[in-house]
Design brief:
167 residues; 8-stranded mixed β-sheet
């Protein structure tokens, strides 16, 4: 039979290995950090409204994730939201006339940036900015506009008979 000290050492090493493995798994699944960060470059885009876009939201082309949002700030001159994105270096040929849109994953899902590549022969480099953007469609705004239109616009308090009676 193995001595007690050897058994305790083996159990301790097994527990240490298990704790390290679970920690690595938790970081990989959560997407908070990467143990081996890939090479990348940074681009940006200015939007009128970013909705619920957050840092670490995905950046996709054709539904395939190619990067993530690294920062959101406000341009003090134009009052537009400037979104910084880290793009994997394997995706090099994004043309400079491409457009960026903020879309929602599902009806009430998280927002992400979708890039629609175009056909220019010049490509984005580190630090470039996308010129063509489409802001997020905020569900609350759409519902508010729908209710406003259903209420009759400016004369929401009057019925149809009252509108015709008062010239």
């Amino acid at each position: 039979m193995l001595p007690q000290r050897l058994i305790e050492t083996l159990v301790g090493l097994f527990l240490l290995f298990a704790i390290v493995s679970l920690t690595v798994l938790a970081f990989k699944v959560s997407g908070l950090t990467s143990l081996f960060p890939s090479d990348s470059y940074t681009i940006s885009a200015a939007f009128d409204d970013i909705g619920g876009l957050k840092v670490r939201s995905p950046v996709k082309i054709g539904g395939v994730q190619i990067g993530e949002v690294t920062g959101v700030s406000l341009d003090p001159v134009t009052f537009k939201a400037v979104v910084s994105m880290r793009i994997e270096s394997g995706v090099k040929d994004i043309s400079d006339d491409s457009s960026a849109s903020i879309l929602t994953a599902g009806l009430l899902g998280d927002n992400y940036v979708a890039i629609a590549p175009m056909y220019s022969n010049t490509y984005l480099k580190n630090g470039d900015q996308l010129q063509f953007t489409h802001s997020a469609m905020v569900l609350e705004k759409l519902i508010g506009q729908f209710i406003y239109k259903m209420g009759g616009g400016d004369d929401a308090g009057q019925s149809k008979g009252e509108k015709n009676a008062n010239p």
